[in-house]
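Honest question from a wet-lab person: if I give you the sequences of every part of a complex, can you actually get the arrangement of the whole thing, not just the pieces? Trying it with mine:
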Amino acid sequence: MLRGVLTIEEQRARMKAVWPMFAARSLDRASQSVRWVGEVRPQFARFMLEIRYQVGDVPDVRVLKPALVRLPENVEGQLPHVYPPTDDPTLCLFDPALKQWDPTMEIAETTVPWAFDWIACYEMWLMTGRWTGGGRHGSVLPSVGFAS
Amino acid sequence: MEVIVNAPFQLQGRNPFDDPLDRILAEVALSTQLPPSLHRQAGGRYAAVRKHLEADPAFEGQIEHFYPQGSMAIDATISNRGTDDEYDLDIISQLGGRFRGMEPLTILLELERALANYPVQKIVRQTRCVTLYYSDRMHLDVTPALRAYGMLDRESFITHAKGPRSSADDRFVDMNAYGFARWYNNRTPLELRMAKAMHEHWLRLEKNAVSADAEVDEVPDQCDFIVKNTATLALQLLKRFRNIRYATYDGRIPPSVMLSYFAGLAAQPDMTLSDMLIRQAKWIVGEIELASLYGRKLHVANPVCPKDVFTDRWPENIAQQNEFARHLKEMIDGLESVKRGDLFADRLMEWLRGHFGDRVVTKAADRMADEIGNGVQAAEQRYSRKGSLLLPTAGAIAAAASPAIVSAKPHSFYGVPI
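Yes, you can. This is the full assembly:
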C-alpha cells in the first residue's frame, strides 16, 4: 500500500514524540507549514537548530546558534554540504538525485538524525580539515516535485 | 528461578567510547601508550636480559628477583617527555649475597660490565641503573637492588652513585617499588566493560596496522587486558599532560610515581574518563594547596615504605608545586568547559593539542573522524532521544533493546559550494 503525504499535524505529533526538545513554533494549518526550534548536542558543542517545513516541500534546516565556523581554504569549500546563500546557509542532508526524501517520510526519522549526522561530521571536519561523511557537491538546488 | 548468591562481584566501569569527550581522550591515551607489539616484547626482553646476566659468572645464581617496576608494573606506561614514540621501562634486579658488602658504584660498574656486549644500540650507566637502548626506541633501565631483610616483601636498597669515581654522595636508597605496585593495583581493580572496550579498540587498530604493513607479525586475537581501569587510563592522560606542559622545562618535573600515588588514592569505580581525570587533578591541587597553606613542600611517601619518598627530588620549593597546581587547575577548567559544551570544535582541537600534544591529538581526531564518517555513510549512527551520538556498536546493541534509540535512515550529503 502506498503511503500518503503526511500532514503537518502528523509531522508535528511525531516530532513531539521523538524529539521533545524541538518546540513547534509558527504552526500554520492553512498553509500546512511549521517551524521547529530546538537545542541539541549530538557530539561536543550545543547547537540551536531550526527546521522549517511546508508540506510538499523540502525541510529547511539551519543552525541558528552558534555562528558556524568556516575554513576558507578547505577542499570542500568554506562550509561543506550546505545550500546558499553564503550568509544564511541551510544544511544539505540528502542527495536529491537519489530521491532519499519525500513528504511521505517522517522528518523525525530522517531530517533530524541527518542533521545530527551533519553536525557530527562538521565538528570532525573543523578538527581535522577532512569531511569523512561522504556525499557530493553539485550545482542544482533540490525540488521535490512530489504529487500528493 | 535459580538465584546465584555467591557469584563474585565484577566491576564493569564505563565504556570511554560512549561519550564524545571521553572517546577522544581515550584515543589520545591510546596514541601515547606503549603499543601492544612493544608491550608483548617487553616481557621477552626482561627474560632475555636476565638470562644474559645469569650467564655472567659474577651474576650466576645471584639474581633473586627480576621484576618490572614503575609504570610497567601498574600498566601506565606512556611515551617519554618530549617524544611520542619512545618508552622507558624499568626492571629491578634483586641481587644475592655476593653483592652484599659492595659499594653502590661497584655494583653499578659490575652490572655495566656484564651488560657491555648486550645486543642493543647503546648501553649507558646512570646514577641508579644501567639503561639499554633498543633500536625500536624502547629504553630498559636495569636497577640493581639488595633486599632489606626483616621488612615487607621485596623492600630493597637500590644503588645511587654518579661515578665514575666513588663520592661521598654515593649511597643506597630504601625503596619498595614492588609493594607500591601491589598497593596501586589493589586500589584500581579490573573494570571489565571498560577494559574490554579499550582492548577491542586496540586490537582493531592493530589489525588495521597489520593490513597496512605486511611485514608486521600477525596480531593475536587474545591477550591480557593492558589498561584495566579508568583510573589508570586517566593517569596516563595526566602524565601525558605533565609531559607536554613541561616539554621545554629545564629541570625536574612532577614525578610519575607521585602522580600514580594520587591516582591510586583518587580511584573510584564506574566513573567516566573525563570525570576521573578531573578528580585526580583536583585531588593533587587540593594536596598542594594544603601543603602551601602551611608553607610546606609537598611530601609524598610510598604507602608501604615511608622511607621511600616519592617527592625527594621534586618539588624543590613551594613555588614549583604552586606552578603545577596552576597548570592542573587550567586543565580542569578546560575539561569542565568541554563537558558543558561551551567549547566549539575548532577551539576544542586547539585546547587538546595544547594539553596533550599536536601529533597524538591529530592522530586521535583523525581516527575518530574516520569512524564517525564510516558510521554516517553506513547509516550506523545512533542517537539517544536527547540527541546525543552513541558509539556505533553500543548504539546498535541498545537499538535492538530500546525504543529510546533513533537511527538515521541511509542518506548522502549534497550541497552547492559556497
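Two things worth pointing out. Chain B has two domains: 16-34+189-366, 36-187. DSSP finds twelve helices and twelve strands in chain B.
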